[in-house]
Design brief:
The protein is 54% helix and 0% strand. The protein has a domain of 71 residues. The chain starts with 14 loop residues before the first helix and ends with a helix. The protein is mainly α and 109 residues long.
């Protein structure tokens, strides 16, 4: 069984969520982040890409604030959804891949 770290839900940094944290919009942003929490890397990209296509102009910046994903990642997900055959099955890292956790690097001996 892979060693999984406990992930936390990203807190949206958009102005609406800052000013009105209990509004309908803030609850929608929290729901988006709850869904993204359970997805793998590729599906996070694609989910954000679908939302970017639906929301239209200016959505990539807005989704970046909501989800914490980079604008390049969201744009890549959008293009993967629009053109699915160009790069099939690319972009999923194996378990444990990527940078080591900061907590692991700062161990006291």
């Amino acid at each position: 069984m892979p060693n999984r770290t406990k992930q936390t839900i990203h807190n949206c940094i958009c102005e609406i969520c800052k000013l009105h944290p209990y509004s309908k919009t803030a609850k929608q942003h929290q729901a988006i982040n709850r869904v993204i929490l359970d997805l793998n890397e590729r599906n996070k990209r694609r989910f954000a890409g679908v939302l970017a296509i639906q929301w239209g102009r200016g959505s990539i910046l807005q989704l970046s604030q909501i989800t914490g994903l980079s604008r390049n990642t969201i744009d890549r997900g959008r293009s993967e959804v629009k053109h699915p055959r160009e790069n099939p099955a690319s972009g999923i890292r194996r378990s444990g891949a990527g940078r080591p956790l900061i907590e692991k690097n700062n161990q006291v001996y």
